[in-house]
Write a structure and sequence with these properties.
The structure is a single chain. This protein is an all-alpha fold. The protein contains 11 helices and no strands. The protein is flat, with a radius of gyration of 26 Å.
Length: about 325
């Protein structure tokens, strides 16, 4: 690793016309300082906190990951590239974080986010400054220690921003996480369908009726979970939406497992029926994902907002898809 560090000062260049490396670092620090000081400036059109939820979450996550990259830079084979890109990455991510927080309507949550984001600037600037020191003295253990400590704080403060979001939007966060789970479930079902079509999905030989009730029961429970999501959104109850999303996540997982068990119980030659079941399970999962997305979008909106129509329509679509799936299961 000392080999990489020894080459580091020779390889460290910036493609910025008219700027020396020192001027480049100062420019980034000035941008972060000016961005931080703009936190309390008004915006043309503020948005409800929940409309900005995902944007704030993602920008905080990006800053946390940048901090983790900086922590591990010294032991990385890509040490030169990591530290070369660090000032630009930190500056861009910090600007995005501030912009997303500024767009929120005034609230106690916004104040907490502003405080954390304001404090974050100090450590972003410190890491940029220290990365300049490391560039000049790549073997200086003290500079690397400071880099590690301040980068760690960036990750910690960025994660504290995400904790503020979780506490203020537990239902929304549960919807986001469940949507992610469903994406993995559908990908797995689609992979199984490819194997079934290719004739490489083995059969256990179990009697199919052993799995019929598991599939039917889980599909019916999903409709109930969808209605709970809608009720939680209507009442603007984060805890109710959270509980409903968690129920939906468990139920769609149960359904997917039942479908997979039922499919592999069928003969390897019964490609048509296997495909019908896997298609049906995938369609149900995607319909549920749409409901979660529209629940998240409608939450906190006025009753006349168009997002409610999309939510109600998505529930009707799930009911139709579940009915079709149940008919398929009964016909096998």
């Amino acid at each position: 690793m000392m080999f990489h560090l020894a080459l580091f000062p020779l390889m460290f260049t910036y493609k910025v016309v008219g700027l020396t490396p020192d001027e480049y670092f100062r420019q980034k620090i000035e941008i972060i300082t000016e961005t931080r000081d703009s936190l309390s400036e008004p915006v043309d059109a503020a948005m409800p906190f929940l409309d900005q939820y995902e944007a704030i979450w993602n920008s905080a996550k990006t800053l946390s990951l940048i901090g983790m990259d900086a922590i591990g830079a010294r032991n990385s084979d890509d040490v030169t590239k990591i530290l070369k890109d660090l000032p630009e990455r930190i500056t861009t991510a910090y600007q995005a974080s501030v912009e997303n927080v500024r767009k929120c309507e005034e609230s106690n949550t916004k104040e907490a986010l502003k405080d954390a984001t304001y404090n974050l600037a100090v450590f972003c600037i410190s890491v940029i400054n220290i990365s300049r020191d490391v560039r000049v003295k790549p073997n200086d253990a003290n500079s690397w220690r400071l880099m590690h400590d301040h980068a760690k704080t960036i990750s910690e403060v960025a994660n504290s921003i995400r904790q503020v979001l979780i506490q203020s939007g537990s239902g929304i966060q549960a919807c986001i996480e469940t949507i992610g789970t469903i994406a993995r479930i559908t990908e797995n079902l689609e992979t199984m369908q490819m194997l079934a079509r290719d004739g490489t999905l083995e059969s256990t030989g179990d009697p199919f009726p052993n799995h019929r009730e598991d599939m039917s029961g889980a599909a019916k429970r999903l409709v109930g979970a969808a209605r709970l999501l809608v009720n939680g959104a209507i009442s603007s109850n984060q805890e109710q939406v959270k509980d409903a999303a968690m129920t939906a996540e468990k139920t769609i997982s149960d359904l997917a497992n039942a479908v997979k068990s039922g499919v592999i119980s069928l003969s390897i030659d019964d490609v048509g029926t296997r495909s019908l079941l896997l298609n049906g399970g995938t369609d149900v999962a995607k319909a549920l994902s749409n409901i979660l997305e529209f629940t998240k979008n409608a939450f906190g909106k006025s009753p006349n907002d168009a997002s409610w129509d999309k939510l109600y329509s998505s529930v009707k679509e799930l009911v139709i898809i579940v009915r079709s799936f149940l008919e398929t299961v009964e016909s096998v």
